[in-house]
Design goal:
The chain contains 29 helices and no strands. By secondary structure, it is mainly alpha-helical. The longest helix is centred in the N-terminal third of the chain and has 30 residues. It folds into three domains: 167 residues, no CATH class; 228 residues, no CATH class; 80 residues.
Length: 622
């Protein structure tokens, strides 16, 4: 037991050091590329092998030794990269020596193994398949044929350059995203999470389905700064799910609501999710441009969740929380208003042109300072250490994903597979944009069943986004479309981490939770269609056009939610659903004619349902 405790302490110290190193760089300037990216991967590998042993159960001595051997090999390969980086750069294009080739192969294997241990087998397997394609290209069918590359050439790109393991993906994760992961740990440690949940409960708890609406609003508030759907599920779900269960929600429904609304943190500015930072780097625009473009679609998503929860509550006759059981909104706000300061800090730095890394640094500092305002939220030295350690540990899934996706993206880019895949989409779509969008959504659904969000986004943006751009979709809109559709991975069985976390809290069946989450979360596909066909939602146009587009889109989201829930004013029949589905499709397309058709179809359904309700009430009273 003492050895285990010592190992746990060592891991925590190493994880806290991981956080401190990158907070220091954010404050005083990032080091040369080989040090920043090399250290980021080194910490990720070492911690992954120490925290995630090769066997889940008590391992035998040889297995334990094997894990430590991997730690030593990780240290050797990363140190070799850092020391020889300048030579790698000057010798670009020259075949690798046997030592360099060995180190490169070891580095690739270590990154894929660390990824396998932290995020599962799928990403590693897919990366291996694409690596095989890069080598065996001359044996491929004509449509994806290429001349093939030698192992030395492949490894030189993956290891001895800044295009593979240490490429742009790792750059974004190490300099931007990691800091907001640490910030999320400070949000948890400071008590800000509890404050946002209590504030949401006080604000909306009294309304129909109040416990579920509390989950929506708290995830809205907390997710906007946390940027992680799984962490959001764990933090808010620990409060909102038991609350929903106590108010009569079925376990799998309560779990699904929390899992789906927690995705919204990936969409909602100011922080959004990891993929949003990647998007800013790939599109080449300031992050604040991404945040602004994402605001209206994010609001549509959360309103869709408000509608979904409301309709579920009406159908199941779930009332709001009694007023005498609710905290006072003013008292809750006065007790923790200062936790809005870190959000303001993020908005200030990003809107004034500072880098996301600087915004992340000051967000961490301001969150710590905010915790000092009250004695019951004040972070002690132990709390500070635990927050730093938790930030380092929480980043491992993202860090190993960054390395593995770097391998994957390089394997796709080297033989030009991205352009080939885009050509395939263009040929299958035959110039029809709706078909192309459906193909991309289908690809995201399949990838989402085996990858995490960032991985799915990076693969899709490399393979599919160019095809959408060639079909006339603006670059930023194409990236947003892929960004949104890749988010379904966290609630898509069999790999649906947020749904698993929520189901565990609710004591619900994981499969029922996953599939119900998928049904509730299909607006993740519906809303992106809107901002493809309604550019006003991306702030393109006059203020009046933007406002009208948001209103019509909101009504479209309501119609879509009614189709998914099978309820509007009463239970929907087949005719209702067909008309509502047609209305929701009509409202996707910008234009007075289509809007009028959509409104008219919804009006017909409302009139028809009111007629059925009156007829039913007469039969009851007769």
């Amino acid at each position: 037991m003492e050895i285990k405790n010592k190992k746990a302490l060592l891991i925590s110290i190493l994880a806290a050091t991981f956080s401190i190193v990158f907070i220091y760089q954010a404050a005083f300037g990032f080091w040369q590329v080989q040090y920043t990216r090399g250290l980021y991967i080194w910490f990720a590998l070492v911690l992954s092998f120490l925290i995630n042993p090769n066997r889940k159960k008590e391992a035998t001595l040889p297995v334990k030794i094997f894990d430590y051997v991997l730690v030593l090999l990780s240290t050797a390969t990363i140190a070799y990269f850092i020391i020889n980086f300048d030579r790698f750069t000057s010798n670009a294009g020259i075949p690798l020596t046997s030592v360099e080739l060995t180190m490169g192969i070891l580095a690739v294997v270590l990154v894929l193994e660390a990824s396998r241990r932290t995020v599962g087998n799928s990403l590693a397997i897919i990366a291996i398949i694409f690596l095989a394609y890069t080598y065996f290209g001359k044996y491929m069918p004509t449509v994806i044929y290429h001349r093939g590359y030698s192992i030395s050439r492949i490894i030189s790109v993956l290891y001895a350059s800044t295009d593979g393991i240490f490429g742009s993906v790792v750059y974004v994760f190490s300099t931007f995203i990691f800091l907001f992961v640490i910030f999320g740990s400070f949000i948890k440690a400071s008590g800000a999470g509890d404050f946002f949940v209590d504030l949401s409960k006080a604000a909306v708890g009294r309304y129909t389905g109040g416990a579920g609406q509390t989950a929506v609003v708290s995830s809205w508030l907390l997710g906007s700064v946390l940027g992680s759907s799984t962490a959001n599920t764990a933090i808010t779900g620990s409060v909102t799910i038991p609350m929903m269960l106590s108010r009569g929600y079925k376990p799998h429904v309560a779990a699904a609501i929390e899992a789906v609304v927690s995705i919204g943190g990936q969409f909602m500015p100011p922080v959004m999710g990891a993929a949003a930072f990647l998007m800013a780097a790939f599109v080449g625009v300031p992050y604040m441009t991404i945040a602004k473009a994402g605001l209206l679609p994010a609001l549509l998503f959360f309103f869709s969740m408000v509608f979904m929860v409301y309709l579920e509550a009406k159908r199941s006759n779930l009332k709001g929380i009694p007023v005498d059981e609710l905290p006072s909104f003013s008292k809750v706000f006065l007790r923790g208003w200062y936790f809005f300061v870190p959000i303001g800090v993020i908005v200030y730095f990003l809107s004034n042109g500072y880098s996301p890394s600087m915004a992340g640094f000051w967000a961490i500092v301001s969150c710590y300072l905010a915790s000092l305002v009250r004695k019951d939220t004040r972070m002690s030295f132990k709390d500070l250490f635990n927050a730093l350690a938790d930030g380092g540990k929480s980043s491992l899934a993202l860090a190993t994903t960054a390395g593995a996706v770097g391998i994957l993206v390089a394997a796709i880019s080297l033989p030009g597979l991205g352009m080939k895949f885009s050509s395939i989409i263009l040929q299958l779509a035959n110039g029809n944009l709706p078909i192309a969008l459906v193909l991309v959504m289908a690809a995201s659904f399949v990838l989402g069943m085996g990858m995490n969000v960032s991985s799915a986004y990076l693969v899709l943006v490399t393979l599919a986004a160019p095809a959408l751009v060639q079909m006339g979709v603006p670059l930023l809109t194409a990236h947003f479309f892929v960004f949104w559709t890749s988010q379904l991975s966290v609630i898509t069985p069999p790999v649906c981490l947020s749904a698993y976390v929520a189901a565990a809290i609710a004591g619900a069946d994981t499969w029922k939770t996953g599939w119900y989450s998928l049904r509730m979360g299909l607006s993740i596909y519906y809303v992106p269609l809107m901002f493809v066909y309604i550019p006003y939602l991306m702030w393109v146009g006059e203020p009046g056009q933007i406002l009208w587009a948001f209103i019509t889109s909101l009504i479209g989201v309501l119609a879509f939610s009614a189709v998914m829930q099978g309820y509007l004013l009463t239970d929907t029949n087949l005719i209702d659903r067909v008309l509502l589905a047609a209305a929701s499709i009509s409202l996707i397309i910008s234009g007075l004619t289509t809007d009028t058709i959509g409104f008219g179809l919804i009006a017909i359904v409302i009139f028809y349902q009111l007629f059925r309700i009156r007829k039913r009430d007469k039969l009851v009273t007769a």
